Amino acid sequence: xxxxxxxxxxxxxxxxxxxxxxxxxxxxxxxxxxxxxxxxxxxxxxxxxxxxxxxxxxxxxxxxxxxxxxxxxxxxxxxxxxxxxxxxxxxxxxxxxxxxxxxxxxxxxxxxxxxxxxxxxxxxxxxxxxxxxxxxxxxxxxxxxxxxxxxxxxxxxxxxxxxxxxxxxxxxxxxxxxxxxxxxxxxxxxxxxxxxxxxxxxxxxxxxxxxxxxxxxxxxxxxxxxxxxxxxxxxxxxxxxxxxxxxxxxxxxxxxxxxxxxxxxxxxxxxxxxxxxxxxxxxxxxxxxxxxxxxxxxxxxxxxxxxxxxxxxxxxxxxxxxxxxxxxxxxxxxxxxxxxxxxxxxxxxxxxxxxxxxxxxxxxxxxxxxxxxxxxxxxxxxxxxxxxxxxxxxxxxxxxxxxxxxxxxxxxxxxxxxxxxxxxxxxxxxxxxxxxxxxxxxxxxxxxxxxxxxxxxxxxxxxxxxxxxxxxxxxxxxxxxxxxxxxxxxxxxxxxxxxxxxxxxxxxxxxxxxxxxxxxxxxxxxxxxxxxxxxxxxxxxxxxxxxxxxxxxxxxxxxxxxxxxxxxxxxxxxxxxxxxxxxxxxxxxxxxxxxxxxxxxxxxxxxxxxxxxxxxxxxxxxxxxxxxxxxxxxxxxxxxxxxxxxxxxxxxxxxxxxxxxxxxxxxxxxxxxxxxxxxxxxxxxxxxxxxxxxxxxxxxxxxxxxxxxxxxxxxxxxxxxxxxxxxxxxxxxxxxxxxxxxxxxxxxxxxxxxxxxxxxxxxxxxxxxxxxxxxxxxxxxxxxxxxxxxxxxxxxxxxxxxxxxxxxxxxxxxxxxxxxxxxxxxxxxxxxxxxxxxxxxxxxxxxxxxxxxxxxxxxxxxxxxxxxxxxxxxxxxxxxxxxxxxxxxxxxxxxxxxxxxxxxxxxxxxxxxxxxxx
Amino acid sequence: xxxxxxxxxxxxxxxxxxxxxxxxxxxxxxxxxxxxxxxxxxxxxxxxxxxxxxxxxxxxxxxxxxxxxxxxxxxxxxxxxxxxxxxxxxxxxxxxxxxxxxxxxxxxxxxxxxxxxxxxxxxxxxxxxxxxxxxxxxxxxxxxxxxxxxxxxxxxxxxxxxxxxxxxxxxxxxxxxxxxxxxxxxxxxxxxxxxxxxxxxxxxxxxxxxxxxxxxxxxxxxxxxxxxxxxxxxxxxxxxxxxxxxxxxxxxxxxxxxxxxxxxxxxxxxxxxxxxxxxxxxxxxxxxxxxxxxxxxxxxxxxxxxxxxxxxxxxxxxxxxxxxxxxxxxxxxxxxxxxxxxxxxxxxxxxxxxxxxxxxxxxxxxxxxxxxxxxxxxxxxxxxxxxxxxxxxxxxxxxxxxxxxxxxxxxxxxxxxxxxxxxxxxxxxxxxxxxxxxxxxxxxxxxxxxxxxxxxxxxxxxxxxxxxxxxxxxxxxxxxxxxxxxxxxxxxxxxx
Lengths: 918, 496
Fold this sequence. Notes:
With 918 residues, chain A is α+β, with helices and mostly antiparallel strands. In chain A, the strands form six sheets. Chain A has a five-stranded antiparallel sheet, with no helix packed on it. Chain A has a three-stranded antiparallel sheet with strand order 9-6-11. Chain A has a two-stranded antiparallel sheet with strand order 1-2. Chain B has 496 residues and is α/β, with parallel strands linked by helices.
């Protein structure tokens, strides 16, 4: 037995002894020289019993006997029998105590299995005696300043290490030595930028013996543009980013500008509070920039169902539900989806509170329509941007009142960029002798009509109509309040090429709210001549009496119609006169409305900050208020988990009572406080603090002792060792082989994938392999189609991104081996690395292999490995000598050395140490 | 060699730990799985995870079911697009009399159809029915080969579903939910029971008819289960499994040598770093190497004897449903747990010749009838039918009315999507043969006796595999999920 094990053994006895003494003294504790009664700790002692033995039947879903232990107020109320289960201070009156002690198994609680053990009964009894105090679950407790513990060791590099060291002492573990410089450089480079260092960077780092050599490297990595790409790849899972809409048709979606927004936001180190507000409510900020609008596409990554016959409202609701759940998953690590149908089974959130929160998100203009409106339209052509400028100047010049000029100009720009607020056919009522083609577009026979209900027409003098027509035949009458009511406009259908187009129809000015009827007229035998996509009422441009007016109006219409735009789906709030009401869905069924609710946050968390508007913006501000106990904890845990492969709270997706407990609760809180108050929400500062810790810099070698004592490395007596992510895996292979393009931003690309994967019905979409450097872009730029994601990424645990997935569960499967062994993309990388060995690696095979290894692994090769790879090289050479026709197939040319080195490179790129961050 | 054994062992342990971690974090999941693997207690009294210690179970190793199973595996033949029950199994002479008449308003009120608008006409059955087999089960003349195996099958005539569009309806059948994101039936089954073959995936998917199903690959996705449980599509063109072939210019010997070099270095790496994950990787690379042989070998039907090819109507090298049926039998022989065939092209609205009851539909029957019957016979003659549950069906049925898309007359005979009643059949795996179950009304619109919901079908399939559908759960986003959502009852009357 080693000295340390002996020590451990001794301590075990001591602990045992202490436990015995503690039990014998029945809850008396030594306090300031006297024995006092032990105060029962609700979170540590009572909640675990409740959660394990009671909550399934007496929680948020089942409330057997009308008794629930989810909230104190419920628990203390009389239950079905009229008795009170818990009467604070009175054990005799507490039905719960009577029932858990009952001798009759029919009466006894819990009803199945063994009775509670005496020590649990004792705890519950004392707790009630002491007043049955409730405490919040740790994650809901307000964050308070906390000092790092004092520890005596010279191992500590920064405050993080003090927390870690203290915990190691408890477990009688010692930290591991610092990783060697090469390993450390590769680790920190992969962690911060997602890419390995180059051999030159390694040499520079090895040569730099100054005290701050490592810190300098960290600063360089944080400043690298690659940094933003790496963290964007992580955030794309949370945002459920995809380049397609999902569901059956899964058609294309223009979403890449949001991805680029993320890259820039990370690179600029946009503070996390601002980063949050812009994504959740950028559109509601004062005079939002186009970038802030694009940020809101975060919540436009919900799926959109274009299949014929689907009910757009059903899928709009599905999107809002997804936004609600995703917001809670990402920022609060709370499994809100439970509460859709009933009160949370374990966590203190009530059913109606789900819909109060849902109400924040239920007033956006999007409606599951095929165009994905509302979109931000950004003109690709300079001439269109100029046109907009001209029309804007026209509005300024011809708006009479100086006070109104700016506002009118902004209204114009808003109209051109977003064309809102429009009314889609699904909101039309009384559709008669007509139908919604595909369930989406209005068409009608002669005399058929549809009605736009209850529209506020004050100040509106024109309609903007989006329609499609193959013939210039028939007309549409717009009438007030009935199909034969007052005629507001009579429009003759104009044939238009190329799908839906917008036109302007002047209407008779009127006031107040009215139902507007659209009555279709067409000559006999012609049938339906026109499909309507949407209708919008607004006010015409000023200056109608001017000579140039028709020309300006024409420019305006052409701006509405041009297809030379990048359209990004964004969030836009519906105007007040048009706002949606929210009801509770009874048992989660969207067809069964319960009571109406107003936007609010759950009561068990702090209220909306004072002065915050009761809308999405207020909700976002609440999310990043320093009063919110979850946001900062969840955020630091997420970044921590990315570096260590495991969170301080392992269940990074669930901070509720059913999630894991933090291994280092004080460290979590300290980091959260630092993030908010010291780093001003700077993620770069947070990451720097973590990677500068001695904890992070430890060697990841797992001794048999550590494997036994801490197999999952939760106490961090060693550094992290985890498999690379799907993106890192691809990027690294391309990087070390010299193929990787450093082009940033822009539309998603289609690197080579096997033929025939995109055989999808009802879709003309094709995988068109990108040309030139676009074949070799970083993984995050790969076109992401939800129903058929890029196969090698899926093999390495990328989620398909239909929904937000906050934690990828890493697997280790034979299908992964097949990808990195045989995927032509990986073979191309191997060939290219082999070429680099020849070009840059020296003259002898031995030198070339050593240099190839260094390019791939970024450390020098040792003799045994070189020997193994050299043997493989010789076997390969022999193979190509015996099978000369195979050489060109492997090497692309008749070069046996290149072919054999490609085999060696392929082996290198399949080594455990290559696919692992060690 | 010892190192390899150790690697396998470690692989099993490591995989399981993760799997286990998820499961034991909650009361209910813990209980459900406790019965499967003896859920123990690396958790404190709150059920929270304290430490992660290894347990002995490879996630794909065969696992004990809840009770003695009738079937060891499932072959699920999904006719994507939804065949018409009225031309195949649900004999409705009354409907013939109503042919061409307006559909009564009572059948249209409050209903939504995918395409029917206004008042459609009734469409009589477009096939002749007669009693078949010893059981005298009514089957139409469009399935002459099936007549020979009808005494093996239990035909359910009263299936009903909640979804009238293809993608959501297929998802409902295959994942228990109409929305994307849930694990498919095959994933649930391999998650519950593991695989019996070390060299092949436990859940294999074969697709014919020129297209994947409308719902895409999600119908064989693993949803929130670990990806190791997702269906592996074996393709008839290109690599049968993606990337299973060695790169050009490299043969199997050279691959072996390169794996030897990789293993040697990885072993050193393990000695140096001590990470059990490295050992898992070594064993997974070895399995990949075995798959490189076993997958192409099993996909190569050219060595099957002539009489087998005649029986199935197979042509080696062609992408066809017949070939897939033969492959299903071959995979059954090798212990693959869940074999899923999708055949696309059954959507018969009457808007084109291919999609017409009197043309395309008959062609689809012709293409599939012989191989389906051959599969049943072949399984039987090999003694495999009694332990293999074969399921046939679409995602919904077809209306007794002629479709009138956008209120217009259609160029061909066709039927719209119908959710209220449709037919499926099961054979083998402990199911009674030669019976019909459930009755529909005189025109085949509603089930009027013994209705069977999709969740009931799923509960029944799991039951035949020895699993209780309410106990096969997985904890995700704060609650336990199961294939049958919150419904499902086993259709006991069709079980032998």
